[in-house]
Amino acid sequence: MKLYELSAAQITRGIHEGKFSASEVFLSCLARAEVLEPQISAMLTITEESGMAQAKAVDEAVASGKKLPPLAGVPFVVKDNMCTKGIPTTCASKMLMQWKPPYNATVIELLAEAGAVLMGKTNLDEFAMGGTTEHSVYGATSNPWKLDCVPGGSSGGSAASVSAGYVPFSLGSDTGGSIRQPAAFCGIYGFKPTYGLVSRRGLAAFASSLDQIGPFARTVEDLALVLNAISQKDELDSTCSCRPRPDYTKALNAESLKGRRVGVIKEIQEYAIDPEVRKAFDQTLKFCERQGAEIVEITLPTMVEYGLPCYYILALAEASSNLARFDGVRYGLSTDAESLLDLYTKTRAQGFGLEVKRRILVGTYVLSSGYYDAYYLVAQKARQLIKQEFVKAFGSVDTILLPTAPSPAFKKGELINDPIQMYMADIFTLPVNLAGLPALSLNAGFSADGRPLGVQFIGQWWDEEGLLSTASLHEKTFGCAPIAQGGVR
Amino acid sequence: MADLTFKPVIGLEIHVQLATKSKLFCSCSTDYIGVAPNTNVCPACLGLPGSLPALNAKAVEYGVKAALALNCTINTATRFHRKNYFYADLPKAYQISQYDLPIAEKGYVDVSTEEGGSYRIGITRLHLEEDAGKLVHEASDGRLVGADQSFVDYNRGGIPLAEIVSEPDIRSAAEAKEYVTRLRQLVRYLGVSDGDMEKGSLRVDANISVKCSDGRWGNRAEIKNLNSLRALERALEYEIKRQSQLLAEGEEITQETRHWDDVEGVTRATRSKEEAHDYRYFPEPDLPPLILPEGYVEKVRNTLPELPWQKMERFMSSYELNETDAMILSEHMALADFYEACVEAGASPLRASNWVRTEVLRVMNEQKIDITEFPVDAAALAQLIAKVDDNKISTTAAREVFDTMAAKKVSLEEAMKICGVEEGGISGSDLEKMIRNILENNTDVVETIKSGQDKKGKKQKFLQGLIMKEARGQTDPREAASLLAKLLEE
């Protein structure tokens, strides 16, 4: 077994036992990335030097017999919308090319404390807006299982790099499914925690009330380890919860699903879902039943009917405001201009890509005084209703099973000029963000032509443990997520 | 036409900079005076990607404190909104402010009127918001006009402000001035702001319209950024005249923002923006709702000192001071405390009032010091006043002693020694001897008096003066006068 194929848990254990060094692991991962990058293009920056230095520091700690932190020597990559001090943070936008933040996102600090080694920054849809990782100023990322397909988005680079074996885990951000959908498309685990579990400080905001950082991994244990490291309260993020966090690795020893009630949403039955995705969904449901779970039909009519428009109003309203700061005055792109207004319009016209502009315009429109009541306010009310529906549903179930996306990964370019169709692909993921719930996407097999099929479990608020427990049972039966060969043998 | 009269309707919006040590949403210092530009800044107050606001609890406390003193209702569940607009001094391109749910509403403040009564001005709301940065424009010749370069200093960006919005209850420029004076006194008194208009800690925008006696209403104009009481008063007076004149001529008044030109003494329309502002307010998603804990408001209420106007009332009723004196003494908390300490240490209230208003304020002025740094403590002053009251020393001697105490920072005893002033002074046979001496040296005056030519008593007063001078104030003037009269009759 190659070092890059190991899980995070195996890497730290191996380093601790002296089987190999952190430097060897780092070089193995780096080499794997270098071989596959020409085909996959998942990375925007590779931090070879600083990563090597971090790995060496771990090796020195081992040599001096120091106690190792839980992710010591584990290489990881993060979506390039999380601030890394002195390392470019571009959000895949022309607006921030060359921009190096003067501070680290809280999650970056926490992972450094946990001993993990940053190997680089990954590609994404510009400012996390998109579902394919094609809306990047640096070009599209490929799906490691099928190079002519998209890896999903917007955290496509983070998903692809874990799927292709560059690193055992990575971080993405999920505003409407941006961790779970690419996890499904790339055949790995993707975890969107409860809103407020993980600090958003240092995450370039798309929609503040929906964004949440979460991990990608190939094993459930790794998900739990990373969650342990990043789910700390943060006084600098007022929306980050103060409640105590459990040790998530303790949730991995479930024997069965006896006593657990798994919900299926009645309204989904009529929905146009790809038959192979539906088959994977049915098989997962059967698995739950076999494991002793009780299957309960629930109804979430508002979510199904209004979730999507409600999401696209609220998310884009917040996005239009969050992205207003990119004006050419303080950092990032700044054009030559005759006046202040000229500076704004030219900088923003040149700096933002088409999809981002589209969303800013919609967001500005729904917030403008004449339309606020008709759009934003109504959407807020719909959001409350959707939350209430979930509260009611969780009265009769513990988790909800849902396909992650209506279809497996689609071809590159297929939806690039059809934004509505692309937005529709988020139909099963975005209600989770509206309600602030945790959800975990896992691989449930492959299509006949070799594309991964994903399903997601949605948990009750703060029931990360229930989701990890269910996923670990699934893993025991079907195995962990396989590494894609990325077209290279 | 000639019979038409015009009544102004004025409402003020006052931005008060709260005296917190750190900014409203981050821990950067608020001390920006004389600091190099852009040094008190961090990712949060610069609005860098990924940065988030974290609310300063002290700013909330100060806001609530001021609001309580303004008799407002405190909203214990409020929230913040984003006010979106583009400007170079606004890092995030939105200002975090309170919109539909301010922290306090529906208060009032009483101001005194010229006729001596008092008039109640309603407070619509008090809300918290962050300040913007500061723009400095510069042309190649160093002037502002035609500037071809602009610089932004974000040191001020994010400093906490309380915006206090009045009802349109103000009826004259003088009343507006009185209202701002009151508010300034209040925030200083509470210690929630230094209230310094010159430094920009207190900034006033005025909304003004004029109602004609024939029932016509003029449109409202807003005069922005009036940075002194004088400017406020002059600008309003000008604007009342301008609007009244326009209405009298049957003209329409344009609803606009105007700027006060202090040099020319006129208001001018600022270049109007083509379209009306649409701030696209919406609830700030990065901050949870602000819920004040149970008992919080009461706790803050308990920290409220006696307010200046309450103190003034009390000074008038318990110490029998007149209104002017009571007002002067209650203007600043520390001065009032000094005065009361003086009374408590035994000085009579009226005499203490005289001493504080004249001697203490004079020395403060001369030495350019604050009452808190005053070299004579209240108890020592009370002792000195008591000596005068008991006729142990004269007022003149007491003044000399007081000045010595203040100048040399010495105790009462030492000052008396330095001035050669003795308690009780010269009396009895010593005094008689001294008077005889004086009479001998002024035989011509004595002659005049004895011959009955000193009808108005001027000459006798002159002799009395000589005695007091000789005694250096250390004698009881009544004893000296009766003794003098007795000796003159010999």
Automatic annotation (TrEMBL), chain A:
InterPro entries: Amidase, Amidase_CS, Amidase_dom, AS_sf, GatA. Heterotrimer of A, B and C subunits. Keywords: ATP-binding, Hydrolase, Ligase, Nucleotide-binding, Protein biosynthesis, Transferase. It is an enzyme of class 6 (ligase). One of its GO terms (molecular function) is hydrolase activity. It catalyses: L-glutamyl-tRNA(Gln) + L-glutamine + ATP + H2O = L-glutaminyl-tRNA(Gln) + L-glutamate + ADP + phosphate + H(+). Its EC number is 6.3.5.7. Belongs to the amidase family. GatA subfamily. The active site is at K79, S154, S178. GO terms for biological process: translation. Transmembrane segments: none annotated. GO terms for cellular component: glutamyl-tRNA(Gln) amidotransferase complex. It comes from Aminobacterium colombiense (strain DSM 12261 / ALA-1). The keyword ATP-binding applies. The keyword Signal does not apply. Allows the formation of correctly charged Gln-tRNA(Gln) through the transamidation of misacylated Glu-tRNA(Gln) in organisms which lack glutaminyl-tRNA synthetase. The reaction takes place in the presence of glutamine and ATP through an activated gamma-phospho-Glu-tRNA(Gln). This is Glutamyl-tRNA(Gln) amidotransferase subunit A. Residues 25-468 form the Amidase domain.
Automatic annotation (TrEMBL), chain B:
Residues 337-488 form the Asn/Gln amidotransferase domain. Gene3D superfamilies: 1.10.10.410, GatB domain, N-terminal subdomain (1.10.150.380). It is an enzyme of class 6 (ligase). Pfam families: GatB_N, GatB_Yqey. SUPFAM superfamilies: GatB/YqeY motif, Glutamine synthetase/guanido kinase. The keyword Transferase applies. GO terms for molecular function: asparaginyl-tRNA synthase (glutamine-hydrolyzing) activity; ATP binding; glutaminyl-tRNA synthase (glutamine-hydrolyzing) activity; transferase activity. HAMAP family: GatB (MF_00121). Heterotrimer of A, B and C subunits. This is Aspartyl/glutamyl-tRNA(Asn/Gln) amidotransferase subunit B.
